[in-house]
Structure formats: structure tokens, C-alpha cells
Design brief:
Length: about 350
């Protein structure tokens, strides 16, 4: 709906690039939509197709954390069921065992550090009460509505592709803002390693997991975030960092991993955001419980209309893992690509076909 596109300010109702007038142009990235915002003031510093529909992949786990982390006792011990391990073969998992007993804190760390899809199922079931996992997903959608995330709907707690599942770069920033306001989440997001406890009753030893978000440890002032990937969503990313007392968040959807991986695209967009004046703004993140469009900023933004899609084929995913340098940059302002992706997502959801697996 048109009013949904204007949430946060009328300048954000574009499928193209919107940046502060007179400021430097953002770096070229392959993400079909992205947004950079100030976590504390809520000011949106710049975006490309911020309200365009996209597929979340594993960054949806942030919505699970925002909705359920305050509800669950981290010291409670939960027993994993066979249904909790009902995830796509080959998708990301922590290695929780049926019949295993784990502190909820360990399950959260497995979710955020290793993107465990079975961990997402455990937490959604636990937080869903009598309704189980379905209740957890319902709680996620209710929380998204409360935040004003009008272009977000969860079908799975993990971000594995499901019918009718979508989000936007703007909505992800609303969700991330809640997550990074929680000191427990911030501590988890910066945890480098964690030991999964032994399950002596099952004859299994414990093991160590590592933080899978490369921003942590490689980007000065990193606060953490979440990576995601399915073949439908492509690469998705949410990351935050602090510099000179200023905390920024970046969200991006539909990225290819060449010439830069998703987190690297997030890093260069954070660099761009930190280089902008503190009063730079093209809109704002609405406050929870008040999902009404805010006035347009007094500083007139620069809006670049959508451009034609890049005719070059997508990068070969099988060659992406070894690429670490920036290389030649593609232009994210090709928002014609974003509009096409949004259309494809809607058609896929309409046909209720599932495609792809979560990797990140």
C-alpha cells in the first residue's frame, strides 16, 4: 500500500537511491535494497529501495530474538524434541541433539553465532507456549506489527524460505534497533566462542562454536549483527558498529557475494554513514507502537530514480567464498533490479513454492 511506502518519511517512498543533498554518493554494492540508520536517534542516513519487498533468509532470526528474548529465562533448561530438528537437509545447524538438555542462553548463542535453524525451532516452540512453534511465529508477526514493520511477515522462525514470507531493508532496521537496545542481545552478538555442553545421558561430548559474523573482529567498533543466505533470498545482512560515540546500523537484501560478500558490503556502507554529518537525514525509523509516517526531513534529500537492471549475469556462487577484496564495484542504485526482485518474490509467494536452503 502507498501509505506503507511512506513510513519513516515520504522521501523513503522510492525504489531508487535516496541520500542527503550535497553529501557524497554511497559506495556501489550489489544489494538490491539497503538502508543505513542511526541506532540512537533513529535518523535514516540513506537508503536504496528501503520499502521494497525482499526475502530475509537468516536475518529473520533477529525478529525471533527481538520478539522472544525478553520473554525467555536464559537459565531455563530446555529439552530438544524430534520436531525441533525438522529443518531442511544441508541447512545451517548448531548440532543440538534430540533428547539433549541445554540452557536457553546456549540455544540463543547457537542461533546468533552459528545461525542454527534447529535452535530457532526450539526457541519459537518455547516462546509459543501452548501453540508451540506456530505460536512463536505468531508472536514474531505480532511484534513486527507493533514495531511498524508493515512489510514483514514471518512464515518460519529461522528464515528458511516459506510461503508468504518477506521483509524490507527499512523493517530490518526497526527490528535491529530493538535488538541492539537489549544488553543481553549485544553481549550475545559479540561473543566470539561458546561451548555447547556435553550430553552425558546421550553419550555425546561437548564442542565449541564460533561467531559466524565476520564483522566481529574485523571491523573497528563492531557491535555484531546477522548474516543470511538462501538461493531465493541471495545474501542478506544486518550489522551495527560504534564510532566516536555514534552507533549506526546497516541492513541489506538481495546481494551477490562477488565482488564483495554481504558483510563487506555492509562494512563499506557503514563507512559511508560514519563519514556523513551527524545531522544528515532522509527520514527516520518510527518508534515502536507508533507506526505512522513521520514528516519529511527539513534537509531535502537527493533522490535517484531507478535505473535499468545490470545486464551482466549473477556471480557464480560456487566461486564466492574465497573473495575478500573489494574489486570492481557494481551499483546498488540499479533499483530496477530491486523492483524485479520484489515482483519475483511476490510471484513465488503467490505460487507457494519453496526454493533454496539457508546456509549462513
Amino acid at each position: 500500500m502507498a501509505e506503507d511506502q511512506a513510513v519513516g518519511g515520504s522521501a523513503l517512498a522510492t525504489a531508487g537511491l535516496v541520500t542527503p543533498a550535497g553529501g557524497p554518493q554511497p559506495p556501489g554494492v550489489t544489494a538490491t535494497s539497503w538502508l543505513v540508520a542511526d541506532l540512537d536517534t533513529g535518523q535514516v542516513l540513506g537508503a536504496c529501495g528501503p520499502h521494497e519487498h525482499g526475502t530475509p533468509a537468516s536475518v529473520q532470526k533477529l525478529l525471533l530474538a527481538a520478539a522472544l528474548m525478553p520473554r525467555l529465562d536464559p537459565q531455563q533448561v530446555v529439552t530438544v524434541t524430534k520436531e525441533d530438528l525438522d529443518i531442511e537437509r544441508g541447512s545451517s545447524a548448531v548440532g543440538l541433539l534430540v533428547g539433549g538438555r541445554y540452557p536457553v542462553e546456549t540455544v540463543w548463542l547457537g542461533l546468533l553465532l552459528q545461525s542454527g535453524n534447529e535452535a530457532a525451532n526450539v526457541l519459537a516452540r518455547l516462546g509459543g507456549g501452548a501453540e508451540g512453534r506456530a505460536g512463536g511465529v505468531r508472536a514474531m508477526n505480532e511484534f513486527a506489527e507493533y514495531l511498524g514493520a508493515r512489510q514483514t511477515h514471518a512464515a518460519t522462525p529461522s528464515g528458511l524460505d516459506g510461503p508468504g514470507q518477506f521483509t524490507s531493508a527499512y523493517d530490518l532496521a526497526l527490528i535491529a534497533r530493538v535488538c541492539f537496545a537489549d544488553p543481553t542481545f549485544r553481549r550475545y552478538a559479540l561473543t566470539e566462542t561458546h561451548r555447547i555442553p556435553a550430553q552425558e545421558q546421550l553419550g555425546k561430548k561437548g564442542f565449541q562454536i564460533q561467531n559466524g559474523n565476520p564483522l566481529v573482529g574485523r571491523y573497528p567498533g563492531a557491535l555484531g549483527g546477522k548474516t543470511g543466505f538462501t538461493s531465493l533470498a541471495r545474501h542478506t545482512y544486518v550489522g551495527a558498529a560504534e564510532r566516536d560515540g555514534r552507533r549506526l546500523v546497516v541492513t541489506l537484501l538481495g546481494a551477490e557475494s562477488r565482488p564483495m560478500r554481504g558483510w563487506e558490503q555492509g562494512a563499506v556502507l557503514l563507512d559511508w554513514g560514519f563519514a556523513l554529518p551527524r545531522d544528515a537525514s532522509v527520514g527516520r525509523l518510527v518508534e515502536p507502537g507508533q507506526p505512522t509516517p513521520t514528516p519529511t526531513p527539513t534537509q531535502s534529500p537527493s533522490v535517484t530514480p531507478p535505473m535499468a537492471a545490470d545486464p551482466r549475469p549473477a556471480a557464480d556462487e560456487s566461486l564466492s567464498d574465497g573473495v575478500t577484496g573489494p574489486g570492481p564495484l557494481l551499483v546498488a542504485a540499479a533499483a530496477g533490479v530491486g523492483g524485479l526482485v520484489a515482483l519475483i518474490v511476490r510471484l513465488v509467494h503467490r505460487s507457494r513454492r519453496r526454493r533454496g536452503r539457508l546456509r549462513a
